Amino acid sequence: MMPTPKERLSHLLELAAQGAGERAHLADEVADLLLDWPAQYPEGMRATFVALLEKIVREMTGPGRAVLAARFRDRGDFPLSLLNEFFLFAPAPMKDAILMRNDAEGPIECAPVDAEALLHAARTARDFAAELAQVAGLPLPVAAAMLGDPSARALAALARATGVSRATFSAMALLAGPARSVHENFAMLGVFDGVPQNGARQLVAFWRARGEGSAQVERAA
């Protein structure tokens, strides 16, 4: 007999309370349920399991999140908040789709950043991720993942959202981003223009809401 939704949720919450060691396995179990939602389960219960998956994803490491994100590719029927959790580790086409979903949200403002300070840090800082997090009001894990993104879409989203120019974005991506081939660098330079500004603002607001630095950035705007 299939467990009831409450029994299934109770079981998953018990697993979640056991620590971070089995996050990938737990995430897969919740994802399996959401991607093939049992017909006998009330549709209203899905939101609770989605919220649980969002929490688990935030606690996962990069490789695990990348594998999980790929499972939700082309699944625009899921809440934007969950897809945003996947963004930093999603395939490039999925990143583009998530940005477009964000762009369809209502227009918002986004506090700018000191572009000159960012460029100087990219050239001189031993730990640019920490500098980026502080200047842009982002959680450190977000800033670190942003710099590790080979497609540079995350850094482009930050730039488009906060008034950083295309030239400054390109310089930061080249100076502080991962090693890329000539072809990858050429493709990266064209990413900036394809990022929708409001979509970028929505995504940056999502990231800033995860970090303590957001209030300082907003006050400085």
Report on this model:
This protein is mainly alpha-helical and 221 residues long. The protein is 66% helix and 0% strand. The chain is built from 15 helices and no strands. The chain has helices spanning 5-16, 23-35, 46-58, 62-71, 80-86, 92-103, 115-124, 128-136, 140-147, 153-162, 166-176, 182-189, 191-194, 197-208, 214-220. α2 runs antiparallel to α3, α7 packs antiparallel against α8 and α8 (128-136) crosses α9. The longest helix has 13 residues, at 23-35. The chain starts with a helix and ends with a helix. The relative contact order is 0.11.
Give the helix/strand layout.
Layout: H1 5-16, H2 23-35, H3 46-58, H4 62-71, H5 80-86, H6 92-103, H7 115-124, H8 128-136, H9 140-147, H10 153-162, H11 166-176, H12 182-189, H13 191-194, H14 197-208, H15 214-220
